[in-house]
Each structure stands twice: as structure tokens, then as C-alpha cells.
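> call design_seq(struct)
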């Protein structure tokens, strides 16, 4: 796990976009794992900017969302299918047919979850997964207590997450109770994960998953077992890290050839 402490959101977005750009140049049909929520938005802005300005090409790329709400009517503006379309895929030249979200409106949810796992496999697996982290340490919507080996499935949101996400819906009462999320086992199969966290409200979760025990009570801690996990944080989100000076020193003295 590499922790990189950066001065602000635009630096984080630029480093994450560098990694995605390098991947696409090396492998134009790369499979991108797409998070929603507010953390990845600056990355999507930066990718859209590079597409417009430098012609960064997504025409052969694939995208898989991490998760989706259950029970929102199709086309609901807060469904993650719509959020990803609005914030990212409509702004670059990725083909709509290659962008997938779990089907939160499926009549048979377990079958939809299985189909999602199969679709990821058929695309060759996720090359680079973007992640945010919840204040309770969730990644995807793997709430505390999620099996570290879990696959795509339905989960019940914890009330704290519903309150955190009320800002997107207007009222907590409108935030669904259920979601479909890639499991921790699914996320762990991505070849590279880049987790971004900004703001003091994430400081405790970042400390817990980076420096605490690997435990289902803090789902993101499973990333300690990932062979290639990059954690990009701003100063506020890094403020509870015990080894912050060491992470800074390591990054400042990193061999140039290593990349992220
Ligand atoms: C979103 C997702 C969640 C968010 C997390 C942080 O697809 O899976 O894990 O990344 O809730 O959300 P923000 O970035 O809004 O603080």
C-alpha cells in the first residue's frame, strides 16, 4: 500500500489521471472501475479536460461502476448509472455499450449480481479501480461487517452512510436502504486500485484502514492485502496518520521509474 499525501484536490486528480492516461496509452481497451460520490469527481473533470485538450482516447475502454442503489426508478438522477453518465462517460468518447452498472431495478437481484461478476470477468477483469472511502471505512458499499472475500451482492446501508449521502438527495428519507455493490473480493481482483480521500471528515477512516488491523469492521483495511494499492490523500484526510512523515519521505525519494 502506497500512501501519497498531496497538497490538494487538483494535485490528487492530476496524479490519478496520469495513472489512467498511462494505462490507456499502454492498453487502449483497458477496463476502468468507476466510483461515484464526490471524491472521484475532480479525476473525471481532469480526464474530460485531457480528452478535450489532448485527445485522450477512451474509444476502446470499458467501464464498470462499483455499485448502484436498489429501487430507484430507471433514469433517477441519483442512480449511479446516471451519475457516471453525467459526470464522466458523456464527457469522453467511451462507448455507452461498454459502460456497465449493476442492475438495481432487477426483479432477480442475485441473478443480476452474478451477471455483473460474469461481465467483469468477460471483459478481462478491472485494470484500474478508482475508489473513495466512507466515513465508516466502506469501499464500494461494503459496510462494516462485510466479508473480506465478498462478491457482488445486495447490502443494507448503515444509517451513517444514508445520512452522509442525504446531501445528494435533499433528504435522508429519500436515500435508499439497499444497494448492489461489488464485493471486497471482487475489488481485490482489480490489478491496481487508487483510493482518493479528502477532507478532515475522512481522517479517522483513513487512519483506521491504513494503519489499523485488517478487519471486516473497517472494510477498506482489506486493501492492506492488495499487491498494488495507491492511497491519495490531502493534508486534512492525512491528519490522523501516525506515519505521515514516513509516507512523505518515501514519496519524495521514490525512484522516478516507479510511477504510481
Ligand atoms: C461510491 C462508493 C462509495 C463512496 C464513499 C465516499 O461509488 O462506492 O464507497 O466512494 O461513500 O463517498 P464520497 O466520495 O461522496 O465521500
Amino acid at each position: 500500500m502506497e500512501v501519497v499525501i498531496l497538497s490538494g484536490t487538483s494535485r490528487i486528480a492530476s496524479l490519478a489521471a496520469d495513472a489512467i492516461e498511462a494505462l490507456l496509452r499502454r492498453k487502449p481497451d483497458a477496463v476502468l472501475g468507476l466510483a461515484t460520490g464526490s471524491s472521484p469527481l475532480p479525476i473525471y473533470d481532469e480526464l474530460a479536460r485531457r480528452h478535450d485538450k489532448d485527445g485522450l482516447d477512451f474509444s476502446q475502454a470499458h467501464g464498470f461502476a462499483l455499485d448502484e442503489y436498489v429501487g430507484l426508478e430507471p433514469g433517477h438522477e441519483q442512480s449511479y448509472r446516471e451519475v457516471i453518465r453525467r459526470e464522466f462517460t458523456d464527457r469522453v468518447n467511451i462507448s455507452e455499450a461498454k459502460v456497465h452498472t449493476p442492475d438495481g431495478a432487477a426483479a432477480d437481484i442475485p441473478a443480476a449480481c452474478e451477471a455483473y461478476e460474469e461481465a467483469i470477468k468477460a471483459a478481462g477483469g478491472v485494470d484500474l479501480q478508482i475508489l473513495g472511502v466512507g466515513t465508516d471505512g466502506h469501499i464500494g458499499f461494503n459496510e462494516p461487517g462485510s466479508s473480506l472475500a465478498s462478491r457482488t451482492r445486495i447490502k443494507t446501508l448503515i444509517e451513517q452512510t444514508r445520512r452522509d449521502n442525504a446531501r445528494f438527495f435533499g433528504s435522508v428519507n429519500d436515500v435508499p436502504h439497499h444497494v448492489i455493490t461489488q464485493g471486497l473480493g471482487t475489488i481485490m481482483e482489480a490489478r491496481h486500485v487508487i483510493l482518493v480521500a479528502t477532507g478532515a471528515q475522512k481522517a479517522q477512516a483513513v487512519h483506521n484502514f491504513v494503519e489499523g488491523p485488517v478487519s471486516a469492521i473497517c472494510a477498506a483495511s482489506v486493501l492492506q492485502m492488495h499487491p498494488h494499492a495507491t492511497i491519495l490523500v490531502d493534508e486534512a484526510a492525512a491528519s490522523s496518520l501516525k506515519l505521515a512523515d514516513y509516507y512523505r519521505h518515501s514519496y519524495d525519494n521514490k525512484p522516478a521509474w516507479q510511477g504510481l
